[in-house]
């Protein structure tokens, strides 16, 4: 019955259905849909997601594993939701049409350093300089089948450092986890939520600070703010960074570097006092 229905269709549709119904296996992998694309079947996708989740938790500096986790867990639902958020916004639609990329070739750090002191571009390049990173550290997307959705993931990935600059959060584990929690509340990408499990690598005092301060900040600001994927950063470089934060509805969290520095200084003073008291008792 099914075969009779198939051959009752026009020839072009029959060929399309026949091709799509072929079993997907390692030996029968469909052709890539864009440069660098690696099609995966369901088993491969689940295996890669599970493996990259475990390994990236063990070694959070493996950007390739984190990238693979992000791509394999974003499909099929979550990346389409993010793409639809862009399609429903005029600026988001322009970004999808223009397909801008954020690299050292498209965004010269020399020119960024010449921008106004409190501008978005200056805040961005100052953050890059302080943390010792560059715009060229982001992996290319390859495990998302839909070509437009692959660009959406690439755009999210390349804008990540702008989110750091906007919030002031540093790149070490405590800052990254706080930013990932913010991104999860704003984008719903599963990888950003799964990254919160990296709190197991924090010291007890850092975990307490995260639960009491940075997680509440991340959830409230991520839910309240506009979709950050729809910011056309290339057009906002000369804008006052505080003005952009206000428009998006984002409040900066307590400066994590200052907090850690103050605690170290406090511990140093306490240690000196203990040593001094120990010396007096010995006398």
UniProtKB/TrEMBL annotation:
Cofactor: Zn(2+)
Residue numbers binding Zn(2+): 160-161, 164, 176
Keywords: Lyase, Membrane, Metal-binding, Mitochondrion, Mitochondrion inner membrane, Ubiquinone biosynthesis, Zinc
GO cellular component: extrinsic component of mitochondrial inner membrane
Metabolic or biological pathway: Cofactor biosynthesis; ubiquinone biosynthesis
InterPro entries: Coq4, Coq4_euk
Keyword Mitochondrion: yes
Recorded topology in the membrane: Peripheral membrane protein
Location(s) in or outside the cell: Mitochondrion inner membrane
Primary residence: mitochondrion
Record field: catalytic activity: a 4-hydroxy-3-methoxy-5-(all-trans-polyprenyl)benzoate + H(+) = a 2-methoxy-6-(all-trans-polyprenyl)phenol + CO2
Any one GO molecular function term: zinc ion binding
Region (Disordered): 255-283
Entry similarity comment: Belongs to the COQ4 family.
Primary role: Lyase that catalyzes the C1-decarboxylation of 4-hydroxy-3-methoxy-5-(all-trans-polyprenyl)benzoic acid into 2-methoxy-6-(all-trans-polyprenyl)phenol during ubiquinone biosynthesis.
Oligomeric and partner information: Component of a multi-subunit COQ enzyme complex, composed of at least COQ3, COQ4, COQ5, COQ6, COQ7 and COQ9.
Database matches in HAMAP family: Coq4
Protein's name according to its UniProt entry: 4-hydroxy-3-methoxy-5-polyprenylbenzoate decarboxylase
Organism, scientific name: Letharia columbiana
């Amino acid at each position: 019955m099914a075969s009779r229905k198939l051959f009752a269709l026009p020839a072009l549709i029959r060929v399309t259905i026949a091709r799509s119904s072929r079993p997907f296996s390692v030996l029968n992998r469909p052709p890539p849909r864009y440069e660098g694309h690696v099609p995966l079947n369901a088993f491969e996708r689940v295996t890669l997601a599970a493996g990259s989740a475990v390994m990236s938790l063990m070694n959070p500096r493996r950007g390739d594993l984190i990238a693979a986790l992000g791509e394999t867990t974003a499909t099929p639902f979550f990346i389409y939701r993010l793409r639809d958020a862009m399609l429903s916004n005029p600026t988001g639609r322009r970004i999808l049409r223009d397909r801008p990329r954020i690299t050292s070739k498209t965004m010269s750090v020399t020119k960024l350093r010449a921008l106004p002191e409190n501008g978005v571009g200056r805040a961005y390049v100052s953050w890059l300089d302080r943390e010792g990173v560059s715009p060229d550290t982001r992996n290319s997307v390859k495990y998302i089948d839909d070509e437009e959705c692959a660009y959406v993931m690439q755009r999210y990935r390349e804008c990540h450092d702008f989110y750091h600059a906007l919030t002031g959060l540093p790149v070490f584990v405590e800052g990254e986890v706080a930013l990932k929690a913010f991104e999860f509340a704003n984008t719903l990408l599963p990888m950003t939520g799964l990254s919160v499990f990296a709190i197991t690598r924090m010291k007890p005092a850092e975990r307490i600070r995260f639960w009491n301060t940075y997680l509440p900040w991340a959830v409230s600001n991520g839910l309240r703010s506009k979709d950050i994927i729809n910011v056309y950063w290339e057009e906002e470089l000369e804008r006052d960074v505080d003005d952009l934060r206000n428009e998006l509805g984002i409040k900066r969290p307590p400066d994590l570097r200052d907090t850690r520095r103050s605690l170290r200084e406090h511990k140093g003073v306490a240690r000196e006092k203990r040593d001094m008291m120990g010396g007096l008792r010995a006398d």
